[in-house]
Amino acid sequence: MDRVNRLKEIYKTIDNGGVQDKICNLPEFPKIIEFEVTNHCNFQCLMCKTGVGTSTRSRGYMTDEIYQRVIEEIKEYPVALKFVGQGEPTLHPHLTEYLRIAKENNIITHLTTNGSLLNEAMMQEMIDAELSSIKFSFQGVDAEGYRMLRQKDNFEELMQKIELLYRLRGDKEFPYITIGTSVTNESGEKVQAFRERCKNICDKVEVGITTLEFIDLDKIRDERYKSEIKKIQEHQDQIKRRYICCPQIFDTIAVRWNGDITACCADQDGVMTLGNIATKSILECWNSPQENKYREILSKCEYDKLELCKDCYDVYGWTYGDN
Ligand SMILES: C[S@@+](CC[C@H](N)C(=O)[O-])C[C@H]1O[C@@H](n2cnc3c(N)ncnc32)[C@H](O)[C@@H]1O
Ligand code: SF4
Question: Which atom, in ligand 1's list, is nearest to the CA of 49?
Answer without folding.
Answer: 16
